[in-house]
Amino acid sequence: MLHAAKPTTSPDTQPESASTNTSTNASKLIFAPTGGSTDPGHATQYESGELHIEDLFPSPTDQFHKWFTEAVAAKVYQPETVTLATAELPSGRPSARVVFMKELDDKGFVVYSNWETSKKASDVRSNPQAALTFWWREVERQVRVEGYVERLPSLESQVYYDTRIRPSRIGAWASPQSQVLSGREELEGRVKAVEQQFEGQDKIPVPPFWGGLRVVPEIVEFWQGRQSRLHDRLRYTRTEEGWKIERLSP
Fold this sequence. Notes:
Layout: H1 18-26, H2 60-73, E1 81-87, E2 94-104, E3 109-114, H3 119-126, E4 129-136, E5 141-151, H4 154-161, H5 166-174, H6 184-197, E6 210-224, E7 232-239, E8 242-248
Antiparallel strand pairs: 1-2, 1-4, 2-3, 3-6, 4-5, 5-6, 6-7, 7-8
Protein name: pyridoxal 5'-phosphate synthase
Domain Pyridoxamine 5'-phosphate oxidase N-terminal: 68-197
Organism: Polyplosphaeria fusca
């Protein structure tokens, strides 16, 4: 009688056992966190809304203004908070940081910073492109923006600069942003020197190296969280004829 040969498996093809999985997972510092989920072991499900093309304004800046207003009404914490991403050339190395969007107009999204010494300034000088990402947890929404950048004129930057409290205006002059300091004392000394420079002056001019940068959008995506990670993603793309809106697969 012939007997079927017992199949053999190599170590590379042998299925992992539960103990192997446990050992592998134990080596990870963080593995599959579930955040504030009420379902133990499973990620939070998004179910607060839906997004349809017919709901959108023709212009992405008008649509953003609508969503931003709704975020404020929903008491989203600091909805102007945004991640600004840039990338230097020729290396292509990206960098990102959290900043505040301070203005929105029909041209685009404006942030303010030091544009002489900061890392983002160096990136923008070699590659005048940027991306923005807003995340509004309370309404389960995300907005992604990609576009080219342009500096605001000093007169326009002065308008916003004048709204800042005096110590923040002094700080803009005093801080060589992103540059190495010998210690906190060096920064405090620079602040003291600038305070003496503008002592008795209510009107402080905007620093020539500081001001607004506008991200002029070429692509804007509005993202509404849905269950099972089947999110609604609607993307505006700038064309010669105007804005084209498409639905993306999640």
